[in-house]
Amino acid sequence: MKKRLLSGIKPTGDIHIGNYFGAMRQFVEMQDNYENFVFIADYHAMTTVLDAAELKKNTMEIAKAYLAVGLDPQKVHLFRQSEIEGVTELCWIFNCLTSISTLKLAHAYKDAEAKGKPVNMGLFDYPVLMAADILMYKSDVVPVGQDQQQHIEMAREIAKTFNNTFSDTFKLPEGVIVKTVATVKGTDGRKMSKSYNNTIGLFDSEEVLRKKIMSIVTDSRKPDEPKEPEECNVFALHKLFSIDQVKEISNRYKEGKISYKESKDILFENMNNFLKPIREKKAELDKDEKYVLDVLTQGREAAQKVANQTMSEVKKKVGLI
Ligand code: TYM
């Protein structure tokens, strides 16, 4: 029997190359060797997206993104989190096993608090719902970017608490975080994230892509001045998109033989070549939304079967049935 892989992405409308390298690329590379559950975390998105049309649109964008980057619905159960009955019930059961003091340690909550942003209960409870996602399917591996590591640790803690309180039920999942892409940087050098407005979208048009690349922040060193590749935000992206040229570009930086403008031009060429087929596949899917919806229905049925088994086991163990 194959081990199970599970992961998800929030439909917040900003699917970007950080999501791709940090998570989606791993889903694609691992899809042959696991039984795969990959979903659209629409309930999680509601902690920030409170607009029906936007949520629907973003949800389809993620479904198409999964298919456009190469997930094969014959190998991967693709589904919407909210369509699986039981996941919010499991979240409730886990809520009753999780202390407020633990949730107060969660980075997303702490950041929002520190910035004085309003914190809704959804945001506060975010890690518990995520534990329900992960544990529901008895997942073995969870490929994610670095920012999700704490959530996976919390899911493991919740699994242990449940197992100790009732009896052995949940597996302890392992996070899969690929070091070189654990945190992909955005155009300003901070972590690529919608909240920093520094993303490069997976589906950005050629024109937008060029503009964003030209806006990447650099220092003011002149073309013939030696430059430090490891300190350069453009070079960080060369490592992802210019693999064959990375050594040569690094040498040219150190020898003062490349301007930031030329470095950006090369990056644009390579990124555009990489993103073009993904963009094209997405355009095809835009014309056939019925196919995308069929894939989600098929995925839902497979995921629901597993969820039903887990929920009947859990409800018996806790005394609800
Ligand atoms: P989300 O939607 O914020 O991000 C989706 C995935 O992309 C990764 N990621 C990055 N990786 C590297 N560099 C970046 N700059 C970058 N930005 C985002 C994230 O780490 C993530 O793997 N809570 C999750 C969604 C979720 C989930 C789950 C994931 C809900 N339930 C269960 C795994 C298992 C989230 O908000 O991801």
Q: Could you describe the 3D structure shown?
A:
- The longest helix has 30 residues, at 289-318.
- This protein is mainly alpha-helical and 321 residues long.
- Helix 8 links the parallel strand 4 (141-143) and strand 5.
- The mean pLDDT is 97.
- The protein has 2 domains: 4-183 and 289-318, HUPs (Rossmann fold, 3-Layer(aba) Sandwich); 203-282, Tyrosyl-Transfer RNA Synthetase, CATH 1.10.240.10.
- Helix 10 (233-241) packs across helix 12.
- The two termini are 30 Å apart.
- Helix content is 54%, strand content 8%.
- The strands form 2 sheets. It has a 3-stranded parallel sheet with strand order 1-2-3.
- It is built from 13 helices and 5 strands.
- Tryptophanyl-5'AMP binds at residues 6-10, 18-19, 22-23, 41, 44, 130, 133-134, 142, 144-145, 147-148, 151, 181, 183-184, 191-193.
Segments where pLDDT lies below 50 for 5+ residues?
none
Structural class computed from helices and strand pairing: mainly alpha
Given the C-alpha coordinates, what overall shape results? Answer: globular
Strand order of the largest sheet: 1-2-3
The H/E string reads EHEHHEHHHHEHEHHHHH
CATH topology of the largest domain: Rossmann fold
Q: Note the beta-strand portion.
A: 5-15%
SS element count, helices = 13
**Rg on CA atoms, Å:** 21 Å
Mean pLDDT, rounded to whole units? Answer: 97
Q: What's the CATH H-level superfamily name of the largest domain?
A: HUPs
Q: Can you tell me the CATH class of the largest domain?
A: Alpha Beta
- Head-to-tail CA distance between termini: 30 Å
**What is the level-2 CATH architecture name of the largest domain?**
3-Layer(aba) Sandwich
Query: Tell me about the biggest sheet?
Result: 3 strands, parallel
Q: So what's the oligomer here?
A: single chain
Helix content range: 40-55%
Instruction: Return the domain count.
Output: 2
Work out the number of β strands: 5
Bound molecules: tryptophanyl-5'AMP
